[in-house]
Amino acid sequence: MSQTKRSVCTQGKRKSTTVTCVCSESDKFSLTVDMVPYKIHSDKLMVAKIKEIICVVDQQKIDGLSFEITTKNKGGDVSLAYAVRMAFAKAIVSYYGTYHDEWKKQEIKKLLMGFDRYCLVADVRRKEPKKYGGPGARARYQKSYR
Question: How would residue 3 be classed by pLDDT, with cut points 50, 70 and 90?
Protein backbone atom coordinates (compact mmCIF):
# COMPACT_ATOMS: atom_id res chain seq x y z
CA MET A 1 0.00 0.00 0.00
CA SER A 2 1.49 3.32 -1.03
CA GLN A 3 1.28 6.43 1.09
CA THR A 4 0.46 9.74 -0.49
CA LYS A 5 2.64 12.70 0.34
CA ARG A 6 0.96 15.52 2.17
CA SER A 7 1.14 18.65 0.06
CA VAL A 8 -0.55 22.00 -0.49
CA CYS A 9 -0.54 24.36 -3.47
CA THR A 10 -0.74 28.14 -3.15
CA GLN A 11 -0.58 31.10 -5.49
CA GLY A 12 1.02 34.53 -5.21
CA LYS A 13 0.25 37.49 -7.47
CA ARG A 14 1.84 40.90 -7.88
CA LYS A 15 0.96 43.16 -10.83
CA SER A 16 1.07 40.83 -13.87
CA THR A 17 3.25 38.14 -12.26
CA THR A 18 1.67 34.87 -11.17
CA VAL A 19 3.57 32.32 -9.08
CA THR A 20 2.50 28.91 -7.75
CA CYS A 21 4.16 27.13 -4.84
CA VAL A 22 3.75 23.43 -4.01
CA CYS A 23 4.71 22.59 -0.43
CA SER A 24 5.21 18.90 0.38
CA GLU A 25 6.82 16.76 3.06
CA SER A 26 10.40 15.62 2.55
CA ASP A 27 13.43 14.49 4.53
CA LYS A 28 15.12 17.90 4.53
CA PHE A 29 14.35 21.50 3.61
CA SER A 30 14.60 22.37 -0.08
CA LEU A 31 13.31 25.30 -2.08
CA THR A 32 13.53 25.59 -5.86
CA VAL A 33 12.42 28.48 -8.05
CA ASP A 34 11.82 27.32 -11.64
CA MET A 35 13.89 24.16 -10.99
CA VAL A 36 16.86 26.18 -9.63
CA PRO A 37 17.75 25.94 -5.90
CA TYR A 38 17.17 29.30 -4.24
CA LYS A 39 20.71 29.53 -2.82
CA ILE A 40 22.27 29.63 -6.30
CA HIS A 41 19.55 31.66 -8.02
CA SER A 42 20.81 34.68 -9.98
CA ASP A 43 18.14 37.09 -8.70
CA LYS A 44 19.60 38.39 -5.42
CA LEU A 45 16.50 40.40 -4.51
CA MET A 46 14.35 37.27 -4.69
CA VAL A 47 16.81 35.31 -2.55
CA ALA A 48 16.81 38.11 0.04
CA LYS A 49 13.00 38.18 0.15
CA ILE A 50 12.88 34.38 0.61
CA LYS A 51 15.45 34.58 3.42
CA GLU A 52 13.30 37.22 5.16
CA ILE A 53 10.42 34.76 5.39
CA ILE A 54 12.71 31.95 6.57
CA CYS A 55 14.09 34.17 9.35
CA VAL A 56 10.65 35.38 10.46
CA VAL A 57 9.05 31.92 10.50
CA ASP A 58 12.12 30.15 11.96
CA GLN A 59 14.09 27.52 10.06
CA GLN A 60 13.11 24.70 12.46
CA LYS A 61 9.41 24.99 11.56
CA ILE A 62 10.08 24.36 7.85
CA ASP A 63 12.93 21.84 8.10
CA GLY A 64 10.93 18.83 6.88
CA LEU A 65 9.28 20.62 3.97
CA SER A 66 10.06 20.88 0.26
CA PHE A 67 8.93 23.87 -1.82
CA GLU A 68 8.69 23.93 -5.62
CA ILE A 69 7.96 27.41 -6.96
CA THR A 70 7.04 27.97 -10.61
CA THR A 71 6.42 31.29 -12.34
CA LYS A 72 3.76 31.72 -15.03
CA ASN A 73 3.50 35.31 -16.26
CA LYS A 74 6.73 37.09 -15.58
CA GLY A 75 6.49 40.81 -15.06
CA GLY A 76 9.42 42.77 -13.69
CA ASP A 77 12.13 41.58 -11.31
CA VAL A 78 10.67 43.27 -8.25
CA SER A 79 7.12 42.04 -8.80
CA LEU A 80 8.49 38.52 -9.35
CA ALA A 81 10.39 38.66 -6.06
CA TYR A 82 7.33 39.83 -4.13
CA ALA A 83 5.06 37.25 -5.80
CA VAL A 84 7.51 34.45 -4.91
CA ARG A 85 7.67 35.71 -1.33
CA MET A 86 3.87 35.76 -1.10
CA ALA A 87 3.43 32.25 -2.53
CA PHE A 88 6.14 30.87 -0.20
CA ALA A 89 4.63 32.47 2.92
CA LYS A 90 1.10 31.40 2.00
CA ALA A 91 2.31 27.82 1.43
CA ILE A 92 3.80 27.64 4.93
CA VAL A 93 0.61 28.96 6.54
CA SER A 94 -1.61 26.70 4.42
CA TYR A 95 0.47 23.60 5.20
CA TYR A 96 0.31 24.22 8.95
CA GLY A 97 -3.41 24.94 8.73
CA THR A 98 -4.12 21.73 6.79
CA TYR A 99 -1.84 19.18 8.46
CA HIS A 100 -1.14 20.66 11.92
CA ASP A 101 -3.27 22.36 14.51
CA GLU A 102 -4.91 25.74 14.07
CA TRP A 103 -2.90 27.29 16.91
CA LYS A 104 0.43 26.81 15.09
CA LYS A 105 -1.08 28.21 11.90
CA GLN A 106 -2.36 31.31 13.70
CA GLU A 107 1.02 31.78 15.41
CA ILE A 108 2.88 31.72 12.07
CA LYS A 109 0.26 33.93 10.44
CA LYS A 110 0.55 36.47 13.27
CA LEU A 111 4.36 36.53 12.91
CA LEU A 112 4.13 37.13 9.16
CA MET A 113 1.39 39.77 9.42
CA GLY A 114 3.41 41.59 12.08
CA PHE A 115 6.47 41.56 9.82
CA ASP A 116 4.77 42.58 6.57
CA ARG A 117 1.08 42.36 5.73
CA TYR A 118 1.79 41.89 2.01
CA CYS A 119 3.45 38.53 2.67
CA LEU A 120 -0.03 37.00 2.87
CA VAL A 121 -2.44 39.59 1.44
CA ALA A 122 -2.34 40.38 -2.28
CA ASP A 123 -1.83 43.95 -3.46
CA VAL A 124 -4.96 44.70 -5.49
CA ARG A 125 -3.56 47.66 -7.42
CA ARG A 126 -3.49 46.96 -11.16
CA LYS A 127 -2.51 49.03 -14.19
CA GLU A 128 -5.39 51.10 -15.53
CA PRO A 129 -6.08 50.43 -19.23
CA LYS A 130 -5.25 53.10 -21.81
CA LYS A 131 -8.08 55.19 -23.24
CA TYR A 132 -8.42 57.13 -26.48
CA GLY A 133 -7.34 60.77 -26.79
CA GLY A 134 -4.04 60.49 -24.98
CA PRO A 135 -0.85 58.51 -24.46
CA GLY A 136 -2.03 56.81 -21.26
CA ALA A 137 -4.97 56.13 -19.00
CA ARG A 138 -5.45 59.70 -17.72
CA ALA A 139 -2.99 61.90 -19.65
CA ARG A 140 -4.34 63.81 -22.65
CA TYR A 141 -2.56 65.09 -25.72
CA GLN A 142 -1.53 68.74 -25.42
CA LYS A 143 -3.81 71.20 -27.17
CA SER A 144 -2.26 73.77 -29.50
CA TYR A 145 -4.19 76.95 -30.41
CA ARG A 146 -1.80 78.29 -33.07
Answer: low
